[in-house]
Design goal:
Radius of gyration: 30 Å
Structural class: alpha+beta
CATH architecture of the largest domain: Beta Barrel
Number of helices: 10
Number of domains: 3
Largest sheet: 7 strands, antiparallel
Number of strands: 31
Distance between the termini: 93 Å
Strand content: 25-35%
Helix content: 10-25%
């Protein structure tokens, strides 16, 4: 009898639960669990759409001159660093006795036009006298029509084929979000038409591999040979061009980098039309302002951003506009500037010949200047910075115990020995006391102090007077220059004067 009651009770309760659930569904309070999206169980549809437009690229480069004998060294075992995907061995010069050997390698690319335009990486076709392109259907084409842009590591290859070819559309990389699913397609280790999947791990990576960068980071498995292949979203649009990996072993370890499709959108039309990319430039060297205390002393309000102009090169648009070392650039062409990468991208996209407004802070005061964008010289951004020269200690230095330095006047001889301009004024650091406020702030021998709390100094004694009148408790803002060129701000602080 008890057993029977228990069964009935369960049935009644089950019936009540069923009625309650049904009632909730009818009222729209508890929607039904949606079906698992198809893309989570299979990527077959997007792969079928994308794969026919992905190609393998076999490049042949001119042999190196005999006087630059080269030896091939395997890429495996290279220390931790960002490496390209182009599956070729490293080479290094070692003498003249060996004959030159032809170089070749294997990479990937993808069609972006039915007439046979292929997008890939510059380092895939760098120095190539001709490239062999193999389509997914097995057809092969040889081409010498290669246009490159080394500053973004992008290139295009044209092939001539009868009839229209399958192609891919460049998507909006800015619209992608961290966590979005992506597919990487290419020819890792020569294995053509390989597809791997993952997510967008991060956006806006800048790793100083190229002059202009906007990398998407992904954990999709990519390896040497994937370089130049597409990183696609689940609607089949290309949102990145696979370019580099971070790896200890040389293989995939979960960190891949792809050039954003929006950079490619800006570069590709110029390569197609002119064969080269013409960019505007300002001719300034900048540094991000990361310390809130320094930002405030320079006049930036809370929430405002800008970049410090550390150097203005002679006879450049920036110099002609009146920009000076130590200015804080806050906006260009009406667009606020948060960091150096943003400034670089905005300048590069401005038409050559355009006059734009530049908003700066100079000694805490807002100024607006006009700059006319000029075409960037071919080798701009590739010049090596000279090594700093040594300073000879002079006996008549001024000791400033308060911050722990000894300073000397910037005489003509000192300026010449260190490489400073003859028109520069200030006091040169001749020695820095260990564990002093100056040492802690990174001041070093040979640096030139030009301003103290935004006021110019013209001699070592003038520097001492300005330092003695300032407070380490509140912080002393120094404007400095270095022998190798460039201006920076340093804030000296201490818990006691």
């Amino acid at each position: 009898m008890k057993r029977c009651s228990l069964i009935i009770c369960c049935l009644v309760l089950g019936g009540m639960a069923g009625v309650f659930l049904a009632g909730s569904l009818l009222k729209g309070q508890a929607p039904a669990i949606p079906a698992i999206p198809k893309e989570l169980t299979s990527y077959r549809d997007v792969v079928k759409k994308v794969l026919p437009a992905v190609v393998s690229i076999d490049s042949k480069t001119q042999p190196a001159p005999a006087r630059k004998g080269r030896r091939r060294v395997p890429m495996e075992g290279i220390p931790e660093e960002f490496r390209r995907f182009f599956d070729i061995p490293f080479e290094f010069e070692f003498g003249e006795e060996d004959a030159p050997t032809p170089r070749g390698g294997f990479g990937s690319g993808f069609l972006v036009d039915p007439k046979g335009v292929i997008l890939t990486n510059f380092h895939v076709v760098e120095g190539a006298s001709q490239v062999t392109v193999q389509l997914n259907d097995g057809r092969k084409f040889t081409s010498k029509d290669v246009k490159t842009d080394p500053k973004t590591d992008l290139a295009i290859v044209r092939i001539e084929a009868p009839g229209a070819l399958p192609f891919l559309e460049l998507g909006d990389s800015d619209a992608m979000e961290v966590g979005d699913r992506v597919l990487a397609i290419g020819s890792p280790f020569g294995l053509a038409s390989t597809v791997t999947h993952g997510i967008v791990s991060a956006k806006g990576r800048s790793l100083q591999l190229n002059m202009y960068e906007d990398f998407l980071q992904t954990d999709a498995a990519i390896n040497p040979g994937n370089s130049g292949g597409p990183l696609v979203s689940l609607d089949g649009k290309v949102i990145g061009i696979n370019a580099a990996i971070k790896s200890r072993s040389g293989g995939w370890q979960g960190v891949g980098l792809a050039i954003s499709s929006n950079i490619a959108k800006a570069i590709m039309p110029q390569l197609l039309k002119d064969g080269v990319v013409r960019r505007g430039y300002l001719g300034v060297q900048v540094k991000d302002i990361t310390e809130p205390d320094i930002a405030a002393r320079l006049g930036l309000q809370q929430g405002e951003h800008g970049v410090l102009i550390t150097r203005v090169f002679e006879d450049t648009p920036g110099a002609k506009a009146g920009l000076k070392d130590g200015d804080v650039l806050t906006a260009l062409d009406g667009k606020p500037i948060a960091n150096g990468r943003e400034l670089q991208m905005i300048v590069a996209r401005l038409p050559v010949g355009k006059t734009a407004t530049v908003q700066i802070l100079r000694d805490g005061q807002t100024k607006t200047l006009q700059v006319t964008i000029e075409e960037q010289p071919h080798k701009y951004g590739t010049t090596r910075v000279p090594l700093p020269r040594r300073i000879e200690r002079e006996p008549d230095g001024v000791v400033i115990d308060k911050i722990g330095i000894e300073a000397i006047d910037l005489t003509a001889d000192v300026a010449d020995s260190l490489g400073y301009s003859e028109h520069t004024q200030g006091a040169v650091i001749a020695a820095v006391k260990r564990d002093s406020p100056a040492d802690d702030a990174g001041l070093r021998r040979g640096m030139l102090i030009t301003k103290v709390d935004k006021k110019p100094v013209q001699s070592a004694q003038g520097l001492r007077n300005a330092i003695e009148a300032a407070s380490l408790n509140k912080g002393i803002l120094l404007q400095i220059e270095t022998p190798q060129g460039g201006t920076n701000y340093v804030l000296l602080k201490s818990s006691h004067d």
